[in-house]
Amino acid sequence: MTDNNQKIFFELQKVTKRLAGQRVIDRMDLQIFAGCNTVIIGPSGCGKSVLLKHLIGLMKPDRGCVLFDGQRTDNLNEVKLLPMRKRCGFLFQGGALFDSETVAGNVSFPLLQHTDYSSQKIREIVAEKLEMVGMAGSENRMPAELSGGQQKRIALARAIALSPEIVFYDEPTTGLDPIRAESINDLILKLQHELKISSIIVTHDMNSAYRIADRIIMLGKGRIIADGTPNEIRSSKDEQVLRFIQGRAEKK
Fold it and tell me: Is residue 169 within 8 Å of 152, Cβ to Cβ?
């Protein structure tokens, strides 16, 4: 799936990565476009998390190169990667909130680390982001006082604290009941439509994938085996794709 009219945020060019002797990413070419919610699916061990780590610079390819906004990033050190990472937000699978910090402490963490804003401005931004995710007034609560869905919302508020251009989501609806999962889906779409935030989402939840995706990429054995709109993926004739999206076990 390509679109010559859209800005390219991330690009992989012939990227290969081996781990424990196995080729986890195999000569992959990929473009991620701005303004698009890109969902990455595939069976466990197919390279989804490794792909994300290459995009944000946590892993380096054995071969090939990674670019962000036209600049090569796989040859940059941690200090030089910082400007790119400040343009990105991250929602980790478990939320990864700091248990000993209040909601305000969690959401303000990126602002304290990466800006010289005054305490008043930070409080204003925290309040704004909490309102955006439906958690206004929760500044003084502790993570242990929150439900799983509320914790995900706080983690999302932290992910957008620096007003990123793109947010990475690792299994954002895992462990949530259908109603709370749908509320997270709604938030992802809200951020896209109201703030023009692009998203890269790794998920096994096909209901969520169909709901939020502009584009779905399916990986298999380190390669892209399907790439298209939700309707194109849903109507695929490829047996490997159909088994995954329909949850069917492989015939023995």
Answer: no
